Amino acid sequence: MNLINYWEIAEKPNYFPMKRRSFLTKSAAVGLAPLSFETYRHSGRTEEAGAGILNEGAGSEDMVVEKFQPGLPHKGKVLAAIQPHCDDIPIFAGGTVAKLIKEGYTGYLIRTTNDDHAGRGASQGEVILNNEKDNEKVAAALGLSKVYDLGYRNHRMNNISMQELTARFIFLFRMLKVDTVVSYDPWGHYEENPDHYVTASAVEAACWMAGGGLDYPEHKDAGILPHTVREKYYYARGPQLVNRIVDISESLEQKVESNRVIVTQGPGGDAGIRLRDRLAEEGKTLPILEGSDENANRNYIKNIVLDIDSQRIRGVPSDRETGKAFGLEWAEQFHYIGPRKSRLEEYIRLHN
């Protein structure tokens, strides 16, 4: 993610419809302030929809609160969690990824860079290796089945061929038969890291092109057929158009763990014990850092990174406050794009 120098800090979805214009006006800088649950509640009415078609695509003006669904409703579906760096998914979307895996998805982790300019290591090669190991641990913590590392240079993705990157995503989406992606928002505002916006743009294009029969037809000769990505959860570390709040109360501990296992870079890792050691030198303490080293690190992530100091560390509102605004314990926010629902059959029915 590389937002700041971290080493200096130690059931079914419910619909709450709202108008996009109202949303943008009342929230001012969307993504920088949690929304009011009461403001966007639709006269106390809650609508339910089955898994899969949860809104009507990019044109939907509904705000959706997506809750945990027991019973493996997504069994047989495939998820791709995509990040430029090993800490991006854990920081912004770890709870949602873990939730979807618990609901039946088979998941894969795709990292576009080698993280050679981020984190600890005696040499650049050691930094790359350390981040690779951490990335594997992230996949394990979130329940993802396999990691694909694309190996581009960190902070230099704006110098690569966009078509090449898009083509690699198209191949993976087809080969893995990806139904849903979780990735950076290609339309998120004020994103300064080229790895983030280049990855996001390539993902957006590949999701569309992967379903086309004329793009890369040679794939068919290898038995890899066109496959359409039907759902996209886009996260951002700044203002974005938010239309989905995902309840991560059931998967919060996995999100915390996915941040704890990253010790090379990021805001998690052993930051809790480092802060505890610093406070001890100053004659100070924090109750949340008492106990074992693991307890200190997990509590630091949960209470500081994801809550109290979230805006500074991650650039997004507290997960606790985001959830609270919608009557939840913990939540993540996204711009969601789902399948467009056809009204043709209903139109035909009305005229017959």
Model description:
- Helices cover 38% and strands 15% of the residues.
- With 352 residues, the protein is of the alpha/beta class.
- The chain has a single domain (12-257, 316-350), classed as LmbE-like (Rossmann fold), CATH 3.40.50.10320.
- Helix 6 packs across helix 7 (194-209) and helix 9 crosses helix 11.
- The longest helix has 19 residues, at 124-142.
What attributes characterize this protein structure?
disordered N terminus; Rossmann fold; alpha/beta; 352 residues; 14 helices
Uncertain ranges? 2-59
Order of helices and strands: EHHEEEHHEHEHEHHEEHHHHHEH
What proportion of the residues is helical, as a percent range? 25-40%
Strand residue content: 15-25%
The number of E-state strands comes to 10
Q: What is the H level of CATH, i.e. the homologous superfamily?
A: LmbE-like
For the record, the CATH architecture stands as 3-Layer(aba) Sandwich
Task: Please describe the topology of this protein.
Layout: E1 14-17, H1 20-27, H2 37-40, E2 47-48, E3 62-66, E4 78-83, H3 88-92, H4 94-102, E5 106-113, H5 124-142, E6 146-152, H6 162-176, E7 180-184, H7 194-209, H8 218-221, E8 231-235, E9 244-247, H9 252-260, H10 271-281, H11 293-308, H12 310-314, H13 319-324, E10 331-337, H14 344-350
Parallel strand pairs: 3-9, 4-5, 4-7, 5-6, 7-8
Antiparallel strand pairs: 1-2, 1-3, 8-10, 9-10
Helix pairs in contact: 5-9, 6-7, 9-11, 10-11
